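Please review this one.

:::
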Amino acid sequence: MTFMIPCSPYPLLLFLSILHPSFIEAQSDQQFHLRTIAFYNVENLFDIHDDPLTHDDHRTAEGKDRWTAERFKRKINSVAKVLSEIGREVSQNPADLIGLCEVENYQVLLELIGHPLLKPHNYNIIHFDSPDERGIDVALLYRQDAFIPASFQSIRLLLSDRKGRRDYTRDQLVVSGWLDDEHLYLIVNHWPSRSGGALRSQPNRVAAAKLNKHIIDSLQQLEPEAKIISMGDYNDNPTDSSFKDVLRTSAIRVSDEEDGLYNPMEKLYRQGDGSLAYRDEWSLFDQIFFTRSLLDTSFTTYAFWRARIFKPDYLVIQEGKYKGYPFRTYAGGVYSGGYSDHFPVYIQLLKRVN
């Protein structure tokens, strides 16, 4: 468990004047607080040291990937650049809360938030070591002037392979805290991969979805109107069974199911957008969904405004066979010096200024 007490219990407020949002009629003179929540699969953010307890041998200077200190430094520079720019087109500030996956340990996160592009924004870290065989974890970064953690827990997903042996994977990170003066729950996920085929591996993601649903249901029993945001690389699309049948997410804003889950990423996916590509097919595995308590159109408390995939030109391959794909660190086992094989995603919340 890693956590440090925020330096100040009195968070600052960010003010923003939004002109004519599509969902607010005749409110062009209104002023809103804005907060940005992002998620990014950073594609194997490993240090250069061999951990004898995990399968990280490739990510060493002598390993297959030739993962040197220079390449690690470039990776930190790249990820810091991306995180420093998500949400800036409106707020002029980077994201307030950032879920990450494929990070090796707490030390690489310290390197990341200590980067000159991020250090001025006073990020802190919530992280647990997962039992994943490759040694990759999920984590939450938060700006200490925006969010004060109250509690956090790493929930284990117990899986077995076809022979009944333990199949080690990532935990689900659950954090509660205060976004300015509002109580908020966050769940950071990295569900089991599609290795071996999507259909064959589907039961593992269904199990992850059931765990996620159990967490959400438990929180809602304690706090019926709880504002809960789940984010992650789910290795499933918004229309897959794990979402539609287990979590019962919906892309419809108005619903009779007050305790249901709204997934704005489904609309983006149905429009053809994606966060990663494989064999000329786009998937939207990186998603952020939430309880309907965040759909308050009065905006007297923080409520959902919009969802986006962050893909500026520098994150996109500009020419060749893979034009339009994410510019990744390794491609076909060859170092290419890019950013990640995933695009980040983010949502923005608004609250009316009294």
Notes: The two ends are 38 Å apart (CA to CA). The first helix runs from residue 69 to 85. Confidence is low (pLDDT under 50) at residues 1-27. The CA atoms of residues 222 and 260 lie 16 Å apart.
